[in-house]
Amino acid sequence: MTRIVRTVAELREQVRAWKAAGEQVGLIPTMGALHEGHLSLVRLAQTRVKRTVASVFVNPKQFAPHEDFDAYPRGEARDAELLDSAGCDLLFAPNAAEMYPQGFSTTINLTGVSEPLEGAARPQFFGGVATVVTKLLIQAEPDIALFGEKDYQQLQVIRRVTRDLDLPVEIVGAPTARAEDGLALSSRNAYLSPQERAAAVALPNAMKAAIAAVQAGERVEMAEAAGKAALEAAGFRQVDYFDFRDADDLSRLGPDALHGSKARLLAAAWLGKTRLIDNMAA
Ligand SMILES: Nc1ncnc2c1ncn2[C@@H]1O[C@H](COP(=O)(O)OP(=O)(O)OP(=O)(O)O)[C@@H](O)[C@H]1O
Ligand SMILES: CC(C)(CO)[C@@H](O)C(=O)[O-]
Ligand code: BAL
Question: 222: CA distance to ligand 1 center in Å?
């Protein structure tokens, strides 16, 4: 059975006992509403380490006041069952007071890779993510921590933070788990109506088409514009970005810089009330 703990003290005690017994530990931070994407991180961790810890904490600090903190899907019993079925050893499920005790007043301040794309669309987001992930890494003292490429910029930001702060952990990125039609699995997909869910496949399809076009010699800006137009035609009401970027630092690419460079196409777009993000190697 997956053991559930709610305090940092219990978490540390268990992880330290495992490490004292020579067992390595992997941490999978999540916000719950678990799906196959999260479980793929647990399984990847199990190929690397003996013990796995998943955290479930809907982190208020990464939501702006107008965002969906209250509506975010929650369900600890189902999450615990799924983790149990995946063979996860420990669920760390702190409450807000455990994570942010009264008087909490420290936030990680970021520049660089956190600034464009998600950072521009959600100015509060990466400061909140970096603060809670740093806390989780210090609390759990894992050997490795796993994050999905689905949140590609988040993964790059976390790699940067751990390097910059000398946190003694290996950050492991995991491939994006997708539904059969290609839509990236995401907890927020639960917000989509059946009609919106059918239309959502336009996002990965437009991305694949843009990558194929650029690889066939189309100029980057033309492919980006065609991708945005395809999303709008499919019923997306706003495209926050649909950009080819350098895969490491997410800086802009030159007009035809794809050839020979490590590029990534990243997109975020609104379908009704739901904001979907995705990215692919280009
Ligand atoms: N489809 C997926 N494939 C691989 N990893 C994923 C996938 N979806 C989420 N993850 C990863 O799981 C971890 C926890 O993510 P989170 O709990 O926010 O789920 P989510 O589905 O991304 O939710 P949201 O809808 O809020 O974006 C993150 O490292 C995230 O990148
Ligand atoms: C990494 C994370 C768990 C931090 O709250 C969150 O941003 C997420 O679920 O991707
Ligand atoms: N999966 C990233 C967390 C968020 O969008 O808030």
Answer: 30
Token duo for residue 124: 């509060």
Question: Is 155 a known ligand-binding residue?
Answer: no
Instruction: Dump the DSSP string for 92-120.
Output: E---HHHHS-TT--------GGGSSTHHH
- The domains of the chain, with CATH numbers, are 3-174 (3.40.50.620), 187-281 (3.30.1300.10)
Q: What is the pLDDT of residues 247-282, one digit of tens each?
A: 999 999 876 666 667 999 999 999 999 999 999 999
Is the C-beta atom of 279 inside 6 A of ligand 2? no
Q: Is 32 in the pocket of ligand 2 (CB under 6 A)?
A: no
Q: State in Å, rounded, how far the first CA of the chain is from the last one.
A: 41
0.90 exceeded by pTM: yes
The reply to whether 259 belongs to the active site is no
